[in-house]
Amino acid sequence: MEFFDVVSGRRSVRAFTGEPIADAQLRKILEAANAAPSAGNLQAYEIYLVTGARQRQDLARAARDQLFVASAPAALVFCTHAALAHGRYGERARRLYALQDATIACTFAMLAAAALGLATVWVGAFDDHEVHRVIGAPPGIVPVAILPIGHAAETPEAPGRRGLDELVHRLGGRPDRAFRRAPSAPPLPARPFRRAQAGRPAPLIHWKLDGDSRH
Ligand SMILES: Cc1cc2nc3c(=O)[nH]c(=O)nc-3n(C[C@H](O)[C@H](O)[C@H](O)COP(=O)(O)O)c2cc1C
After folding, report:
1. Predicted TM-score (pTM) of this structure
2. CATH number of the domain to which 20 belongs
3. Collapsing DSSP states into helix, strand and coil, what is residue 159?
4. Residue 183: predicted pLDDT
Protein backbone atom coordinates (compact mmCIF):
# COMPACT_ATOMS: atom_id res chain seq x y z
CA MET A 1 0.00 0.00 0.00
CA GLU A 2 1.21 3.50 -0.76
CA PHE A 3 2.62 5.24 2.33
CA PHE A 4 0.19 8.17 2.41
CA ASP A 5 -2.76 5.81 1.91
CA VAL A 6 -1.55 3.85 4.93
CA VAL A 7 -1.28 7.02 6.99
CA SER A 8 -4.67 8.44 6.02
CA GLY A 9 -6.51 5.08 5.88
CA ARG A 10 -5.38 3.73 9.26
CA ARG A 11 -8.08 3.76 11.92
CA SER A 12 -8.26 2.67 15.52
CA VAL A 13 -10.15 -0.63 15.46
CA ARG A 14 -11.73 -2.03 18.61
CA ALA A 15 -13.34 -5.21 17.25
CA PHE A 16 -11.32 -8.11 15.83
CA THR A 17 -12.40 -11.28 14.04
CA GLY A 18 -10.07 -13.53 16.03
CA GLU A 19 -8.45 -14.82 12.83
CA PRO A 20 -4.77 -15.44 13.63
CA ILE A 21 -1.96 -13.33 12.23
CA ALA A 22 0.63 -15.09 10.10
CA ASP A 23 4.06 -15.35 11.73
CA ALA A 24 5.60 -13.70 8.66
CA GLN A 25 3.33 -10.68 9.15
CA LEU A 26 4.12 -10.48 12.83
CA ARG A 27 7.79 -10.60 12.03
CA LYS A 28 7.46 -7.79 9.49
CA ILE A 29 5.69 -5.66 12.08
CA LEU A 30 8.39 -6.34 14.66
CA GLU A 31 11.12 -5.61 12.15
CA ALA A 32 9.44 -2.31 11.33
CA ALA A 33 9.40 -1.44 15.04
CA ASN A 34 13.06 -2.39 15.25
CA ALA A 35 13.83 -0.05 12.33
CA ALA A 36 12.51 2.98 14.22
CA PRO A 37 14.99 5.69 15.17
CA SER A 38 16.07 5.99 18.79
CA ALA A 39 18.22 8.40 20.77
CA GLY A 40 21.84 7.52 20.08
CA ASN A 41 20.55 4.29 18.49
CA LEU A 42 20.42 2.88 22.01
CA GLN A 43 16.88 1.53 21.66
CA ALA A 44 15.94 2.19 25.26
CA TYR A 45 12.79 0.09 25.12
CA GLU A 46 11.54 -3.49 25.12
CA ILE A 47 8.68 -5.14 23.27
CA TYR A 48 6.57 -7.88 24.82
CA LEU A 49 4.58 -9.98 22.37
CA VAL A 50 1.46 -11.36 24.03
CA THR A 51 -0.33 -14.14 22.17
CA GLY A 52 -1.57 -16.49 24.89
CA ALA A 53 -5.33 -16.33 25.43
CA ARG A 54 -5.02 -16.10 29.19
CA GLN A 55 -2.40 -13.37 29.06
CA ARG A 56 -4.47 -11.40 26.54
CA GLN A 57 -7.43 -11.56 28.90
CA ASP A 58 -5.27 -10.44 31.81
CA LEU A 59 -3.96 -7.61 29.64
CA ALA A 60 -7.50 -6.52 28.76
CA ARG A 61 -8.43 -6.44 32.44
CA ALA A 62 -5.26 -4.49 33.24
CA ALA A 63 -6.26 -2.05 30.48
CA ARG A 64 -9.20 -0.91 32.60
CA ASP A 65 -11.42 -3.69 31.25
CA GLN A 66 -11.06 -2.71 27.58
CA LEU A 67 -12.10 -6.20 26.63
CA PHE A 68 -11.46 -5.78 22.89
CA VAL A 69 -7.76 -6.08 23.78
CA ALA A 70 -8.31 -9.80 24.42
CA SER A 71 -10.17 -10.32 21.15
CA ALA A 72 -7.11 -9.47 19.04
CA PRO A 73 -4.92 -12.55 18.42
CA ALA A 74 -1.78 -10.66 19.43
CA ALA A 75 -0.80 -7.59 21.37
CA LEU A 76 2.52 -5.82 21.60
CA VAL A 77 3.39 -4.08 24.83
CA PHE A 78 5.98 -1.35 24.37
CA CYS A 79 7.98 -0.55 27.48
CA THR A 80 10.66 1.95 28.32
CA HIS A 81 14.04 0.59 29.43
CA ALA A 82 15.57 3.86 30.56
CA ALA A 83 18.74 2.31 31.99
CA LEU A 84 19.90 1.57 28.44
CA ALA A 85 20.11 5.28 27.62
CA HIS A 86 20.60 6.80 31.05
CA GLY A 87 24.34 6.03 31.13
CA ARG A 88 24.99 8.14 28.05
CA TYR A 89 22.31 10.80 28.26
CA GLY A 90 21.50 11.06 31.96
CA GLU A 91 18.24 12.37 33.33
CA ARG A 92 16.91 13.54 29.96
CA ALA A 93 17.14 9.98 28.70
CA ARG A 94 15.27 8.64 31.71
CA ARG A 95 12.56 11.28 31.47
CA LEU A 96 12.19 11.67 27.69
CA TYR A 97 14.31 9.59 25.34
CA ALA A 98 13.22 6.15 26.53
CA LEU A 99 9.57 7.20 26.21
CA GLN A 100 10.15 8.62 22.74
CA ASP A 101 12.09 5.53 21.65
CA ALA A 102 9.29 3.23 22.79
CA THR A 103 6.48 5.26 21.28
CA ILE A 104 8.20 5.79 17.93
CA ALA A 105 8.71 2.02 17.72
CA CYS A 106 5.03 1.53 18.52
CA THR A 107 4.11 3.98 15.78
CA PHE A 108 6.26 2.12 13.25
CA ALA A 109 4.60 -1.15 14.28
CA MET A 110 1.15 0.41 13.97
CA LEU A 111 1.82 1.73 10.48
CA ALA A 112 3.45 -1.54 9.39
CA ALA A 113 0.37 -3.45 10.53
CA ALA A 114 -1.85 -1.05 8.58
CA ALA A 115 0.33 -1.50 5.49
CA LEU A 116 -0.22 -5.26 5.80
CA GLY A 117 -3.99 -4.76 5.97
CA LEU A 118 -4.14 -5.51 9.68
CA ALA A 119 -5.97 -3.52 12.33
CA THR A 120 -4.63 -2.03 15.56
CA VAL A 121 -5.55 0.40 18.27
CA TRP A 122 -3.09 2.22 20.48
CA VAL A 123 -4.07 1.56 24.10
CA GLY A 124 -2.62 3.93 26.65
CA ALA A 125 -5.19 3.63 29.42
CA PHE A 126 -4.07 0.86 31.74
CA ASP A 127 -2.84 0.10 35.21
CA ASP A 128 0.98 0.23 34.92
CA HIS A 129 1.60 -2.22 37.75
CA GLU A 130 -0.97 -4.71 36.48
CA VAL A 131 0.43 -4.68 32.94
CA HIS A 132 3.94 -5.00 34.36
CA ARG A 133 2.80 -8.07 36.30
CA VAL A 134 1.02 -9.62 33.28
CA ILE A 135 4.06 -9.38 31.03
CA GLY A 136 6.41 -10.51 33.80
CA ALA A 137 8.86 -7.68 33.16
CA PRO A 138 11.83 -7.08 35.47
CA PRO A 139 12.12 -3.87 37.53
CA GLY A 140 13.05 -0.81 35.48
CA ILE A 141 10.90 -1.81 32.52
CA VAL A 142 7.83 0.45 32.32
CA PRO A 143 4.92 -0.31 29.96
CA VAL A 144 3.81 2.76 27.99
CA ALA A 145 1.62 1.47 25.16
CA ILE A 146 -0.32 -1.66 24.26
CA LEU A 147 -0.94 -2.38 20.59
CA PRO A 148 -3.51 -5.13 19.94
CA ILE A 149 -3.17 -6.42 16.36
CA GLY A 150 -5.65 -8.46 14.36
CA HIS A 151 -8.12 -8.55 11.53
CA ALA A 152 -10.74 -5.81 11.69
CA ALA A 153 -14.32 -6.74 12.49
CA GLU A 154 -15.48 -3.14 12.12
CA THR A 155 -14.83 -0.20 9.80
CA PRO A 156 -14.72 2.95 11.93
CA GLU A 157 -15.43 6.37 10.47
CA ALA A 158 -12.53 8.80 10.29
CA PRO A 159 -12.96 11.02 13.35
CA GLY A 160 -11.42 14.15 11.74
CA ARG A 161 -8.54 16.29 12.90
CA ARG A 162 -7.70 19.89 13.76
CA GLY A 163 -6.81 21.93 10.68
CA LEU A 164 -3.15 22.53 9.88
CA ASP A 165 -3.77 26.27 10.06
CA GLU A 166 -4.65 25.84 13.74
CA LEU A 167 -2.15 23.09 14.51
CA VAL A 168 0.99 24.40 12.83
CA HIS A 169 2.73 27.52 14.11
CA ARG A 170 5.04 28.82 11.45
CA LEU A 171 7.94 31.09 12.31
CA GLY A 172 9.40 33.09 9.46
CA GLY A 173 9.50 31.97 5.86
CA ARG A 174 6.48 32.34 3.63
CA PRO A 175 3.12 33.42 4.95
CA ASP A 176 1.18 30.45 6.36
CA ARG A 177 -1.26 30.48 3.44
CA ALA A 178 0.09 27.08 2.40
CA PHE A 179 -1.50 25.45 5.44
CA ARG A 180 -4.99 26.77 4.80
CA ARG A 181 -7.41 24.36 3.26
CA ALA A 182 -8.96 25.31 -0.05
CA PRO A 183 -12.76 25.03 0.20
CA SER A 184 -12.69 22.29 -2.42
CA ALA A 185 -9.87 20.30 -0.81
CA PRO A 186 -10.60 16.78 0.34
CA PRO A 187 -10.81 16.27 4.10
CA LEU A 188 -7.51 16.18 5.94
CA PRO A 189 -6.17 12.76 6.75
CA ALA A 190 -8.62 11.54 9.27
CA ARG A 191 -9.26 12.90 12.89
CA PRO A 192 -7.95 10.11 9.07
CA PHE A 193 14.68 -10.00 15.96
CA ARG A 194 16.80 -8.05 17.27
CA ARG A 195 20.27 -6.72 16.46
CA ALA A 196 23.08 -8.21 18.55
CA GLN A 197 24.66 -5.62 20.80
CA ALA A 198 27.25 -6.17 23.48
CA GLY A 199 26.24 -5.41 27.03
CA ARG A 200 22.50 -5.74 26.47
CA PRO A 201 21.41 -8.82 28.32
CA ALA A 202 17.67 -8.80 27.70
CA PRO A 203 16.19 -9.56 24.27
CA LEU A 204 14.22 -6.73 22.71
CA ILE A 205 11.27 -8.94 21.90
CA HIS A 206 9.81 -11.12 24.62
CA TRP A 207 7.37 -13.83 23.61
CA LYS A 208 4.50 -14.33 26.01
CA LEU A 209 2.68 -17.56 25.37
CA ASP A 210 0.18 -19.76 27.19
CA GLY A 211 1.80 -21.77 29.94
CA ASP A 212 4.60 -19.29 30.52
CA SER A 213 5.85 -20.09 33.99
CA ARG A 214 6.69 -16.47 34.82
CA HIS A 215 3.02 -15.81 35.16
C1 LIG B 1 -1.45 7.90 23.56
C2 LIG B 1 -2.72 7.25 23.08
C3 LIG B 1 -3.51 6.57 23.99
C4 LIG B 1 -4.68 5.94 23.55
N5 LIG B 1 -5.38 5.17 24.44
C6 LIG B 1 -6.50 4.52 24.02
C7 LIG B 1 -7.17 3.62 24.90
O8 LIG B 1 -6.76 3.37 26.03
N9 LIG B 1 -8.29 3.00 24.42
C10 LIG B 1 -8.76 3.21 23.15
O11 LIG B 1 -9.78 2.61 22.80
N12 LIG B 1 -8.13 4.04 22.28
C13 LIG B 1 -6.99 4.68 22.68
N14 LIG B 1 -6.30 5.47 21.80
C15 LIG B 1 -6.76 5.62 20.40
C16 LIG B 1 -7.36 7.01 20.16
O17 LIG B 1 -8.59 7.09 20.80
C18 LIG B 1 -7.48 7.23 18.64
O19 LIG B 1 -6.21 7.19 18.05
C20 LIG B 1 -8.13 8.56 18.32
O21 LIG B 1 -9.46 8.58 18.76
C22 LIG B 1 -8.11 8.88 16.84
O23 LIG B 1 -8.71 7.85 16.09
P24 LIG B 1 -7.92 7.13 14.91
O25 LIG B 1 -6.75 6.39 15.55
O26 LIG B 1 -8.88 6.19 14.27
O27 LIG B 1 -7.42 8.17 13.97
C28 LIG B 1 -5.11 6.08 22.21
C29 LIG B 1 -4.29 6.76 21.30
C30 LIG B 1 -3.12 7.32 21.72
C31 LIG B 1 -2.21 7.99 20.70
Report:
1. 0.86
2. 3.40.109.10
3. coil
4. 52
Give first-to-last CA distance, the chain, whole Å. 39
Ligand 1 centroid to Cα of residue 186, in Å, is 23
Q: What is the pLDDT of residue 1?
A: 83
Cβ neighbours, 10 Å, residue 88: 12
Q: Which domain holds residue 137?
A: 3-208
Mutate to test the pocket of ligand 1, among 11, 104, 121 (most ligand atoms within 8 A of CB): 121
Distance 123 CA to ligand 1 centre (A): 6
Question: Considering the domain boundaries, does residue 63 fall inside one?
Answer: yes
Q: Which residues line ligand 1 (CB under 6 A)?
A: 11-12, 14, 66, 121-125, 156, 159, 190
**Displacement of CA 172 from its chain's centroid (Å):** 34
Ranges of the chain with pLDDT below 50: 190-203, 211-215
Query: How far is the centre of ligand 1, averaged over its atoms, from the C-alpha of 95 (Å)?
Result: 22
Task: Compute CA distances 129 → 64, 134, 143, whole Å.
Answer: 12, 9, 9
Beta carbons within 8 Å of 157's beta carbon, 6+ residues apart: none
Q: For residue 213, tell me if it sits in a domain.
A: no
Determine the pLDDT at residue 173: 79
Tally of domains within the chain: 1
In a domain? residue 214: no
Beta-carbon contacts of residue 109 (< 8 Å; ≥ 6 apart): 29, 30, 32, 33, 47, 76, 78, 120, 147, 149
Classify residue 7: in a domain, yes or no: yes
Report the nearest-CA residue for atom 13 of ligand 1.
123
